[in-house]
Structure formats: C-alpha cells, structure tokens
Amino acid sequence: MSNITLDLVENPVIKAFIRDQAKFPEDFKQNICEDDEMYLFSLSNVKDDRDRAFVRYYAIGRRILDTVKQVVEWHFGSFENVPSFLDFACGYGRFTRFLIQEMAPEKIWVSDIYANAVKFQTEYLGVSGIVSTGKPENYLIDRKFDCILANSFFSHMPERTFTSWLQNLYDLLTKDGILMFSVHDESLLESHVEMPAKGILFSADSESQSLDKEEYGTTYVTEKFVREIVDRVSGGKAFVHRIEKGICRFQDLYVVTNQLNREFSSLKFSHHPEGYVDVAALTTKDNLYLEGWAADVNKEGRIEEVQVLVNGELVERCEPFYNRSDVAGYFKTDAALQSGWRCYLPKNTVTPQDVLIVKAINNYGWEWILETCTVKSLLSQRQSQSLLGSTQTKMKLMETQLASAKIEWEQSQSKLMITQTELQETQSQLISAHTQLEQTQNQLISVQMQLEQTQNQLINVKKELERSHNRVLAMETSKFWKVRTAWFQVRRSLGLAGE
C-alpha cells in the first residue's frame, strides 16, 4: 500500500468532523495518501495548516456526494438500485470514501491515470480499479457501467482529447445508464477574456504537479459546445441536462442518458448554503464571541439556522439577522443581504482545547461547514495577518459594518420623512376640518338666530290674534251688537235681508 498519513486516527478535529458528516462514522475510511494532489492542493490554500486542509478535503468530498446523490435518486431511486458505478479520474478517493458508505464497494470501479491512486483505493477502500491512459484511444474497457462520474476531468481537457474521452465514456454506458461530467462554463472567465467562436478555450495551467499541462490544463466551454459534442458522440440519441454550478457551486454538471425514464424537470436540484466565521474573540468576561455570515442562493432558499457544536454537542444556534452588503454584492443578489449573524458562548461551555463545529443549514436540509477546529486554533487564526488580524481586513470589516449602519440610518431617515409628510398631511386635514367646523357652527348660530326671530314673530302674531279675538268677543257681548243682531233677524224674517 502507498504511504499514508498516520496521524489522523487520534486527531480530535478530524474525529469531530467525521462524527458529524459521515453516514457511518465508525466505518469511515479517513486515511489520506500523502501523494494525494487534492489534499496537497487544499494544504497549499490554507498555508500548511494540516487540520484545515484535512477538513477542506473531506468537506469537498461530502459536497460532491450530496450532488451526485440528488441525480442518482432522481434516476435510480437510490444508490442501492445502482448495479455498477465508475468513478473516472477518481484521484485518491476524496469522493469514493463517501460513496462506499452509500453502496457496496464491489459495485464500484475507480479509474485514474495515477496507478498509485488506483492501488491506494483498491487496497484501502476495497473497490475495483482500472488504470487509465494518457491517450483516449488506448483506454480499452471490456465492460459497461450503469452510472459514470467524471468530476473535474473535462475541465482540464484540450479540444483534441475532449471529444474522444467523452466518446469513450459514453460508449461505456449501459442502455439505461447515466453519465455525469463537470466543466468550467464560460461564465467563469475573466471579463476581459473572449471565448473563441468554436466554444472552447484551453490554457496550459492546472493544479497538477506531475501531468503535462499541455495535455492536462484548464478548459472553459460554452453550453452550446457541450451539447453539440454530446449530440455527435451519441449519434443524436442522448438526452442532456445542465446543472449550473452543480459541483461545489463552481463547475457546471452535465447529465447524459439514452433513456429518459423521468423528465429532467422532475430533477429538483438544490445547492448547499455557504458561509464564513469572520470574527472569533474572547470578551472581557472570557465568553467566546463569534460573528460571520451565512447565505443561501437557491430559488426560494433560506438559512434555517447557524449551529455551533462543541465536541459534537449542540451548544448554540442563531439565525442571520443583519445586512451584509458585501455578501449580497459577492453573490449578486439581494437574497443574500440579510446574512450576518453573531452569537456568544459562555466561558463555562468551552475551553481552548475543545473542538468547534460551526455550520449553516438551509431549508432543503443541506449543511455547510463554516469551521471545524479547536477554539485555540480559531482564535489564533482570526487574529493572524492572513485573516482578520490585518489592519486592512479590519478596516474592510468596519467599512462593511458602517455601510450597513448607513443603509439602516438612511432607511430610518426615509421612514421619518414619510412620517413627517404624513403628519403634515394630517395637520392640514385637521385644519381644514376645523375650518369647516367653525363655518358649520357659524351657520348653526345664524340659523338659531333666524329661528329665534321667527319664534318672536310667531309670538307677536299670536298675541295680535288673541287681542283681535278678545275685541270680537267684546263686540259680540255689547248692547249695540245684540240690537244689531236682532235687527238683522227682523229684516230676514220680512225678506228684506241684503248681502
């Protein structure tokens, strides 16, 4: 067997990560070959911090599994229903060590140009191995596979071998099989770099330390180019589906099949959330203060919560609650604006030697490990020049916080102006109503005065009528009136009555 790193078994950081992320932690194959280029690449990205390199290595393997699992469950129902699986350009098993926890190793074949990598996997992981070749025409396999994955392979192929290798892998498919392969889409190119009209751009540059960069460099392609190549190698029979940034939200994943048992529209793919711990510091009371961001870019996606585990036990949870314009700018969407979070861990719940796991979980159930390390390591890293400790980085953080505060202040001012405008409108309405009320009161007073005048007039008329009535009564009771009445009666009796 190849030399392997032997210091992982008792590594508390690795043990904590595997216990949290592996399906069967007790059976997980955690040893990493010292020649593994993917591990060495991770190590170079974290300035030789071995614990962080291990965690990054495993975390990417787990993310690739989650991606492949969604496609496999869409096509086959589950990994258990996959009769045979080929991991092409497999490396030293970054992905395969997770795959053997989903399906039996005897159903898995791995293939790589590094014979040492194939040997490591067959001996350590118990899978079957096929040593690949430099030239596609020399890759002669006498069997077919139901599921083939070529992750981060065609993203390195020049045009002269791109089509030939895709033809090889397509020809290895069973009738109902599926082929998955990843590419660098043209959207990853720098804005000043122009894509050639044929739809493929190759540069002699890669992370490999041993392969000929003219044969294994960095390749960018258009979707049109990929679809035309698949159509050519399949004779027009294959169905193709593109998952944008399906691999670790970076490389596009293409799914190819001859039998479309289910429509691609039923493949409900979702990405992992993302996030980072920006600040880790002890307060004056020795509480551990953590601050960072967590965002989800899925359609209708959201962060359910950020969890903090100490030695595998959940001790704190929180949700993003304040704006991070820098995060929204990076993802180019306002959906990532409210992504800032912070929390405190009381000093009696954590010690410098404890292992912290900080992770974000979205509403699709996918997890993103923001950090896995000891408290001591996290504190020292966040105070170092390479991370938060530099004056420049601190200033950027302060600028971000000031920008957020400014936006909130502007929003408050805007709300205040709206409130003031509404108050002025209300005051104007009140003044208008008060004026109308005064006018109404004046009209009422005028009506009341007219009513009183009319009442007085009526009283005077009534008095006058009473006086007239009394005069008539007085006249009717006088002797003259009685004689007058008697005289008219006599005249009527003699027929002499006039009008």
SSE layout and pairings?
Blueprint: H1 12-21, H2 37-45, H3 50-75, E1 85-88, H4 96-99, E2 108-112, H5 115-124, E3 128-131, E4 145-150, H6 159-171, E5 173-185, E6 200-203, E7 218-221, H7 223-233, E8 239-247, E9 251-257, E10 274-282, E11 288-295, E12 303-310, E13 313-318, H8 325-331, E14 340-345, E15 355-362, E16 367-374, H9 375-382, H10 391-476, H11 479-493
Describe this entry's structure for a reader:
By secondary structure, the protein is an alpha/beta fold. The protein has helices at residues 12-21, 37-45, 50-75, 96-99, 115-124, 159-171, 223-233, 325-331, 375-382, 391-476, 479-493, and strands at 85-88, 108-112, 128-131, 145-150, 173-185, 200-203, 218-221, 239-247, 251-257, 274-282, 288-295, 303-310, 313-318, 340-345, 355-362, 367-374. The strands form three sheets. Strands 1, 2, 3, 4, 5, 6, 7, 8 and 9 form a nine-stranded mixed sheet that branches. Strands 13-12-15-16 form a four-stranded antiparallel sheet. Helix 4 links the parallel strand 1 (85-88) and strand 2. The radius of gyration is 44 Å and the shape is elongated.
